Every structure is written in structure tokens, then in C-alpha cells.
Amino acid sequence: MKIIIAPDSFKGCLSSEAAAAAIAAGVRRFLPSCELVQVPIADGGEGTLDSLLASTPGRRVAVRVRGPLGAPVDAEYGVLERGDKPVAVVEMAKASGLCLVPPAERDPLRASTYGTGELIRAALNEGCRDFILAVGGSATNDGGAGMLAALGLRLLDAQGEPVEPVGGRLDRIARIDDAGWDSRIAASRFVLASDVTNPFVGPEGASRVFGPQKGASPEVVEALERGMLAWAEVIERHTGIRVHDLRGAGAAGGIGGAFLAFFPVRFRRGIDVVIEHSSFREALPGADLVITGEGRIDSQTASGKTPLGIAQEARKAGVPTIALAGSIGPGVEALHASGLEAIFSLVNGPMELAEAMAQAAPLLERAAEQAVRAICIGRKG
Q: Do the Cβ atoms of 200 and 246 come closer than 8 Å?
């Protein structure tokens, strides 16, 4: 029997690699001679770089950059060695991520994507011209202004003075000077890996939907929204592109809009990008079962999260997929029609969230063992 193990991370407790290892250990308890193929997966957010490098030849490049609140951080980008054209993987969370800011210090008014721009610039300096941009998990709401500034745009106020590219200063930007814009960008190709479809501004925009997750109070959310609206107007005057209501422009605090306005970029569902550059498809021939999973599976999973994308790809090859989840929310019934045959919860009794997260690995092992026992009733090998 051949089983492919392709989970996402279980946020806050297990990386996708650790989750895959735990699932494999559980399966082996019941099927010790089974052929197991571990393909850790991500959907374009945090963990995308690790996932791709776990299953694709490549390397990491360390870069010291400006963190989300201005202090230096040690970040990295990846270079995938695929054919004669290396592909740079820039994971925004490595330079501008919420994970880099302690909860008590989170403040999207002060946060900037400047470090993400520095990662892009470093990859350009190395000669990379093909990019995967993974933009989940940001601490920022600066509409990509910091990233653009790091790549040569000068953001000026009405008096021609530079404006600090942070979320709380966007409404001071009056014009853009692009004389120093990095010309290599126009000669490069960028794929934005994201499942976020929110617009730049408005009720479903970056500030109102994602601002609270980054530490913004209701008052701060409204201040961010005013700044984003003003910044959108400046972008439109300079480029002719109206990012206000563009689908996906609100991704990662509005960096999606900056990419749409200033880069030769195309959006793709994050899970599809990761699958394409991983070894998952190559592993499917001859497989009997795929096991995927992540921390929570609910109606939002249908928007393009890992379990759905894996199930859809496996179905094309005629391989059934099951999922293991830390918690199961409403709306999962719709996922069955897309190829996710069954969903198993890790928690089988009353348990506090902190305890469940602390015990994630053994719980995942046990759930994997019980799942394959149920599937293989009357069959073992």
C-alpha cells in the first residue's frame, strides 16, 4: 500500500514537516510495511518556503533586513533549482511577518513591508528573474508602500519631503518619484501566491478585515482605512491603475495592490503554486491514499486552503484523500464534493486549546493511526 502524506502546518504548534512526520509515525503503527511519501505543503502563506525546499532542490539565502517595526531581523529567501532558470521564493512573513512582533507590540500604524522589498532586491542582485511571492502572515497594513520604497520609489509629501512608509503615514503621501525605481523588475516575472480575494479598501478591504488580527483597535482600523484610501488615490494618479476595488489587492495589508500596480505580476491560488513546484504530482502514480490536514478545517477551507487543493489534485489522479484537523468547524460538508472524502479530528475528548496544541504531535499520530485502521478494515499491508 502506498500513502502520500501532504499536510499543511498546524499553526502555533507544528510545522508542515513535523506534522507529516507525526502522521507517518501513526500510520506505521498499523501499517509498518506501507510505502509512505511525505510531501509537506503550504498554501502560499507562512511555511511556503520551507515546504518548497523540503521537496524541491534548492537553497536558502540569508539576508539581514529591516523588520516590520524597523529593527533589523535575520530573514531569508529561497532559490529553487528548476531547469536553467532559478526561481526565487520570497516569503513575506520572513521579513514582515506577524510572527516577528510580540503580541504586546503589534501596531499596524508603525509596521512596514520595507524588509520584504529588501528580500526582493537581494534576489534580483543574485540574478533571479522569476519569483514566487508568498504573502501570508503579515504584520503590516501599509499598502505595500515600504516594499516599494525599498525598491527605489520615493514617497513624498506635499512639500516634496520623504514620507516614512508605514501604515500610519500613508495619508501624508502626495506624490511618487519613480526615478530610482529598480528597472530589473520590468524584466522579471512574479507570481503572487495567495488565496485572499479582498479589495484594497472598503468593508471587505485590508484594513477592516485583517487590521484587527494585527493589533488594530476599531479607531486604528478607521485611521488605517483613511490612509489606505488616500494611498490608493496617489497610486491611481501615478499609474492609472485603480487598486481600490481590485480583487486580491487587499492581500497582506494591501501589498497585493502594490504588486498589481507596479509589477508584472499574476495572481494564482497559493496551494496550486506550491503543488506545481513540489513533488506531490510526481508521487501520485500508484498511490492508494492521500492524507492531508491543518489546524482547522471549516467552510473557509473551500477558499483554496491546503486540504481542498490537495484533495482536488489527488482526485484528478483517482486517489482518495482524507484530512486530519485540530478542529472541525461548520460548512465542511461542501468539501466532500470536491474530493475530501473524510475529516478526522485530533481531539477526541474535552481538552483546553493550550493542552491540545502542546500535545499536537501525539494527538496527530493517534488520529492518523485510527484513520487508517478505519479505512483498512479487512485489509492490512
A: yes
